[in-house]
Write a structure and sequence with these properties.
It is built from five helices and three strands, in the order E-H-E-H-H-E-H-H. The chain is of the alpha+beta class. Helix 2 runs antiparallel to helix 3. It is elongated.
């Protein structure tokens, strides 16, 4: 029996377990958008793009602070998320309710209960940090550069095509 963790790969399929990328570098770009544009150009040029890999090098975790956390914001967010979950549960209960005339009762009860639980969980979670993280943020994994690798049998052609892309005027590259 073969499991997804057996390490055996089928020819032509991506590896099932994390493995280092293989191939020869045919281009290097400062942003992911530029690397993506290069691979798109290769695809438009009838290049076998299944032999291409984009590799992010010099990875960084970037955390962008989006705002200050206050009790009002924490409780408001907790109430809103609880209301959504409560509405979802209420809709499910109303779909399976066979009592005539029940209408929006289960939905209203679900929203009110959800708001209550959302407030409680948000308050407990925020108070447990004891002021050590009074801000909101969004994390993103970015790379210092993006290399485009290609299998050796097609690398020379890929490099030649990307050289043509680099020689195009800047306004023609954005199309």
């Amino acid at each position: 029996m073969t499991s997804s963790f057996s390490g055996q790969n089928r020819p032509g399929m991506p590896p099932r377990l994390p493995t280092p990328p293989t191939g020869w570098p045919i281009g290097s770009y400062g942003t992911y958008e530029e690397a993506q544009r290069a691979v798109d150009f290769l695809a438009d040029s009838d290049f076998p793009v299944q032999e291409v890999t984009i590799v992010g090098v010099d990875l960084m975790l970037v955390e962008r602070v989006t705002g200050k956390l206050t009790w009002g914001r924490v409780l408001g967010t907790g109430a809103a998320s609880g209301a959504w979950f409560g509405a979802f549960v209420g809709v499910l209960l109303s779909l399976f309710n066979t009592t005539p005339g029940a209408g929006f009762g289960p939905i209203l009860v679900g929203v009110i209960t959800g708001v209550g639980f959302g407030l409680i969980f948000a308050a407990v979670g925020y108070s447990s940090t004891r002021g050590k993280r009074d801000f909101q943020s969004a994390s993103q994994l970015v790379a210092g550069r993006y290399d485009v690798l290609c299998q050796p049998r097609s690398a020379e052609r890929g490099r030649d095509l990307l050289a043509k892309l680099a020689m195009r005027p800047a306004d023609a590259q954005k199309e």
